[in-house]
Amino acid sequence: MVNINKMVTMRKIRKIKFKFFILPLVIISTYLLLTHIFLEMWHLKRNKSNSLSVDLPNVIVHIDLKGTPLKLSYLESLIPGLKKYGVNGILIEYEDMFPYEGRLANLSAEYRYNKSELKRFLAMANKEGLQIIPLIQTFGHLEYVLKLAEFQHLRELELYPDSICPTRLESGSLLKDIIKQVVDLHTEIAPLKYVHIGCDEVFHVNKCQYCNKRKLSNRELFLQHIKSISEVVKSLAEAKVLIWDDMLRDIKPGEWHTFEPFSDVHPVYWDYSPNLQVTHLNLLKYHTKFPDIWIASAYKGADGKTATFPNLKKRFLNHFSWMNLIVDYTFGGETDVYKFKGIILTGWSRYSHMDPPCELLPISFPSLILNLIVIERFKNGISYLKKDDSNIPINTFKRHLYYDLNTIFNCMFIVNEFDYTKCTFEGDKLYQSLKHHNKMLSSANDLLHSDENPFNSIDYYASIDNLNMNSVSQYKVQLNLYLDDITQLEKNIMKEMSKYYYKEFTLEYVNYKSYNIKKQIIKFLKIFNAYMQNKIWQRRSYSNKSAHVIYP
Ligand SMILES: *[C@@H]1O[C@H](CO)[C@@H](O)[C@H](O)[C@H]1NC(C)=O
Ligand SMILES: *[C@@H]1O[C@H](CO)[C@@H](O)[C@H](O)[C@H]1NC(C)=O
Ligand SMILES: *[C@@H]1O[C@H](CO)[C@@H](O)[C@H](O)[C@H]1NC(C)=O
Ligand SMILES: [Zn+2]
Predict the structure, then answer these.
(1) 547 lines ligand 3 (CB under 6 A)
(2) Whose CA is nearest to atom 4 of ligand 3?
């Protein structure tokens, strides 16, 4: 009895279980599965439509050589990696590294490239399928030309060697010669599709008497110069012309519509900040007068004139913001998605000819690769649910990105910090040496400026013969240790840099980085050494006038 009852009860329980537990579970699972399948299909459909990927036919890396010539063997070694991550061209800014000839010979630095090695490099890049776009400044940023005695008279303002006067006939023939020498060397290797004529940051326009006589507005003068330079380019090569866009930005729409359209000039809208300042109005302006628009980001050289390391987080946000802006971009009144012609990833070596060098290319390579991957991911399609939602899935995106980067560089990128200290890449030894050197300089700087130590009083008290000899001995030892360490680190840096750079630039770089601190250390050591000759001190006196020279 008891057993039968038990069995009946068990059956009942099973029935109840099925009814109240298993059945709902099956229903819920089926529901979830179907929803999942539906969502996947919906995603796939969305992903297939072009509107969620960017279509950038040109991904160009800028190599800035001004005063910082990279060994061409090193540049050659980069090409396969660049291609692998979607690069199809390089924008080369030679500035004073180009082997100019004849009356232009002095434009080149003494340690410029020579023609044969340059042609060899260009032929190799061409064989690998990379297009080359030379960048030749033709309005501002012309210090390497206008600083020279022979071209000094062509400055717009005598004091500033950066801007050329566009009105003087001699300026026109000089610029034509410069363009011709660069274009000719390139077309010996392969035809040029594009020539970049710079024209950014022209700080002095319409300031000289010759320009004033034309009675043109600054804009008219600027645009006429662009027109005449682009005609020079067209007379030398069948190439389209690129210009940086910044001088066009603040032209008002009312003024803008009076200008003639350009048929073969493409503006390159550059913005290197993590939060873009790009305006739709400017894009629309360019859209109405130019056949194509390019954009430019920065993988290095945009985190401060004296930066040693690129800020990877800012560099990532800069590229991510650009991609997010252009994905699915439509102009008001148009239904088709606008196709930007290309992106130039700029990598500045100096902010201008006479500014100090900023981040070095070999240690910025992870930033370049990271941002090429960002672009590639957008090219392959990004699955966000709603484009208008400014809440872009940046965190999901980053997770995928970290996975890629950790695989490539064999390390753990720390989420949100973009710290690549422990990563493996060509240039990592140089990176480590520079990190150590940086740390040593800042610790020496702390010693020299801390309140604990009387360094800020030493100059004065040495002059009135009143230093604590125990401190003097102690600081002398400390400063000598710093000097030895810094010198040793400099040697390491020079050794690592010699893989990528020639001796001249290596010396400049290391001297520049250590100069201030070493100068102070050496000054104090001199004072200490002289002071240690003292055997007798005078009794304190306020009547000794030489003790009060500064504030008598
Ligand atoms: C280059 O500069 C030097 C020194 O100023 C000068 O003597 C020489 O004539 C210049 N060369 C040319 C080709 O102008
Ligand atoms: C050009 O430079 C290369 C590499 O530095 C060197 O081997 C070659 O001799 C140079 N050619 C000339 C003509 O100076
Ligand atoms: C005054 O100070 C100077 C500089 O330390 C020293 O050479 C000189 O002997 C002092 N003169 C007197 C009178 O103490
Ligand atoms: Zn002028």
Answers:
(1) yes
(2) 464
